[in-house]
Design goal:
By secondary structure, the chain is an alpha+beta fold. The protein has a domain at 44-115. The chain has helices at 13-64, 71-74; strands spanning 68-70, 95-97, 102-107, 111-115. The protein starts with 12 loop residues before the first helix and ends with a strand.
C-alpha cells in the first residue's frame, strides 16, 4: 500500500521533454556537419574520376595523334577507363579536347567542378 510520503519512481513529463529538446538541438548541430562531409567526399570522388578521364584522354591523344576524343573512346571494357561510376548524378563532358579543362556539372544537382589537365 502506498502512503502519501512515498514518491513514485520514474520520469516526469517535464524531464522527458527536456531530454527530447536536448537531443533535437544536438541533431540540429550535427546534421550540417554530416552534409558537409558528404559533399566533400562526393567532390573528391568526382575529382578522381576527372583525373582518370584526363589521363585517359592524354593517352588517347598520344596514341592516336589527335587532339579530340569522345567519351566512348575513353570508357569501356577495352578502353583506358573500364567504368565510370557516378557518385552524385553528375554530368561528364561528352568530348575532350587537348589543353581544355574538364568541367563536370550538376554534382548533387548543385555544384560544378573543373579539372585542369
Amino acid at each position: 500500500m502506498k502512503t502519501v510520503n512515498q514518491s513514485s519512481k520514474g520520469f516526469t513529463l517535464v524531464e522527458i521533454m527536456i531530454v527530447v529538446v536536448i537531443i533535437g538541438l544536438l541533431a540540429a548541430m550535427a546534421i550540417p556537419a554530416f552534409q558537409k562531409v558528404r559533399s566533400s567526399s562526393q567532390d573528391k570522388a568526382v575529382y578522381n574520376n576527372m583525373r582518370q578521364l584526363g589521363a585517359a584522354a592524354d593517352q588517347y591523344f598520344l596514341e592516336n595523334g589527335t587532339s579530340t576524343a569522345g567519351i566512348a573512346d575513353l570508357i569501356g571494357s577495352s578502353n583506358y577507363v573500364k567504368a565510370l561510376n557516378t557518385v552524385a548524378n553528375e554530368s561528364y563532358p561528352l568530348n575532350f579536347t587537348q589543353g581544355t579543362p574538364i568541367v563536370v556539372t550538376n554534382i548533387a544537382g548543385a555544384r560544378t567542378l573543373t579539372y585542369n589537365q
